[in-house]
Amino acid sequence: MTRARPQAGFTLVEVLIATVAMAVLAGGAYALLSAALSAEGVAQRTQAAVGGAAQLALAVAGEVARCEAVLHAAGDSLTLRLPGGQKVAYGARDTAEALEVYRTRLQGTVWVEEPMHPLARLLHADGTVPAIAFAQGPPGVVTCRITTAGFDGQFAASRWVGP
Question: What gap in Å lies between CA 140 and CA 68, rounded to an integer?
Answer without folding.
Answer: 9
